[in-house]
Amino acid sequence: MIPQEIIRAKRDGHELGADDIAAFTAGLTNDKVTEGQAAAFAMAVYFNGLNIAERVALTKAMRDSGTVLRWDDMPGPVLDKHSTGGVGDTVSLMVAPMIAACGGYVPMISGRGLGHTGGTSDKFESIPGYVTTPSMDAFKAVVRDVGCAVIGSTPDLAPADRRLYGIRDVTATIESIGLITASILSKKLAGGLQALVMDVKCGSGAFMTTLPKARELAQSIAKVATGAGLPTTAFITDMDQPLANAAGNTVEVAYAIDYLTGTRREQRMHEVVMALSTELLLLGKLSKSKAAARTQLQAALDSGAAAERFDKMVAGLGGPKNVIEDPWKHMTRAPQQVAIAPLHAGPVTAIDNRAVGMVVVALGGGRTRPQDPIDHAVGLTSLAAIGDTVGPDRPLAIVHARTDGQVAEATNLVRAAYRVGGRAKPTRAAVLDRITV
Ligand code: URA
């Protein structure tokens, strides 16, 4: 393999063969491809794209660059859900135990926060003792015993993607639909799944801000995953406003526990959780129809079975027992909780959702560099939604912070992120589209 010949072919707009893609990918893992060559390859792909066959080849090659998990001894279907990332996106925390309660097995390998979006593994690290990097044996044991385990990414899954992603991140080549598709799916395929549901977020708080772009990514993911042997349905869901009314790590775990126990269950969140979970039960052949799936899922919530799976998973991965009974006995609240009043009263007509996510980053709850530590306790709760009337009795949000300076900064940033009054943008449905191949 001569890396520069492969780069040259892509630079000149030619289709790459699966063998060339496999050889280049192997070079990413064994360092035969230099950093400069990987960057040039990514830029050539950025400009000239990859067709579906090339995306499938890259996905499979990156999957095979490391360990591919096997779940032969699971008594039920092995299923997973993945999101492209958003603000107040606690969906994974609910879907995993709900599917487990309905007979599925969910080995969820989740990511850390990226830019303004929160990361599921960061959220679970809010729970004292919870280990997001267990041994593979421990991970498998919890999946088998409980039906779900949510952990962080491991270096031995798709190492070629890890290297290429790091180079893309610093060479302005993240935003390539082909590379994003292969990157996400290589890790999911390495997880050894039988079916996947993708949640492609769309709106001001998502990486795909427009519906056409979100649809392009969703179609790419559904086609490439299925082409690589992983039956996948992709949903496009709204991210023009926070999905949960909480954003931050500890506060989102508390929100998810409230949802699972039925303490509060907001409609938009419920729609997304039910749509994705229903699809997983159908893909896993655990339900015969959409209506039956919804009934099973509602029963798993109403009976407490889903909450119980969450509890058992937390304990199985090193966290406290009975976390759902009193989460705040175990998790730490930020010392200050202060209401952010709007500058004037009126209806919320638009939200810069990315800016809301960046408030959490500014508070220290997210990262500006991958190696940064985060403060799990900070964040926002009681976030007003589009259409809510805010004023003296209804703040825009409550900020959870450590210092007066943080409260003042967050107050200014949240006020700037919300438009109050003026012409309202029509509120979109929470689930915008469902894409299959
Ligand atoms: N998430 C990934 O895992 N890869 C990408 O390329 C983008 C988002």
Characterization of this structure:
The chain has 437 residues and is of the alpha/beta class. It has three domains: 47 residues, Transferase, Pyrimidine Nucleoside Phosphorylase, Chain A, domain 3 (Up-down Bundle), CATH 1.20.970; 248 residues, Nucleoside phosphorylase/phosphoribosyltransferase catalytic domain (Pyrimidine Nucleoside Phosphorylase, Chain A, domain 2, 3-Layer(aba) Sandwich), CATH 3.40.1030; 89 residues, Pyrimidine nucleoside phosphorylase-like, C-terminal domain (Aldehyde Oxidoreductase, domain 3, Alpha-Beta Complex), CATH 3.90.1170.30. It is 46% helix and 14% strand. The strands form four sheets. Strands 1-4-5-13 form a four-stranded mixed beta sheet, with helices on both faces. Helix 10 links the parallel strand 4 and strand 5. Helix 1 packs parallel to helix 3, helix 2 packs parallel to helix 4 and helix 5 packs across helix 12. The site of uracil has 6 residues, from helix 9.
Q: In percent, how helical is the residue content? A: 40-55%
Low-confidence stretches are none
Rounded mean pLDDT is 96
Beta-strand percentage range: 5-15%
Bound molecules: uracil
Judged by helices, strands and strand pairing, the structural class is alpha/beta
CATH architecture of the largest domain: 3-Layer(aba) Sandwich
What is the CATH C level class of the largest domain, in words?
Answer: Alpha Beta
Shape: globular
The largest sheet has its strands arranged as: 1-4-5-13
Q: So how many helices?
A: 17
Total strands: the figure is 13
CATH superfamily of the largest domain: Nucleoside phosphorylase/phosphoribosyltransferase catalytic domain
Radius of gyration: 21 Å
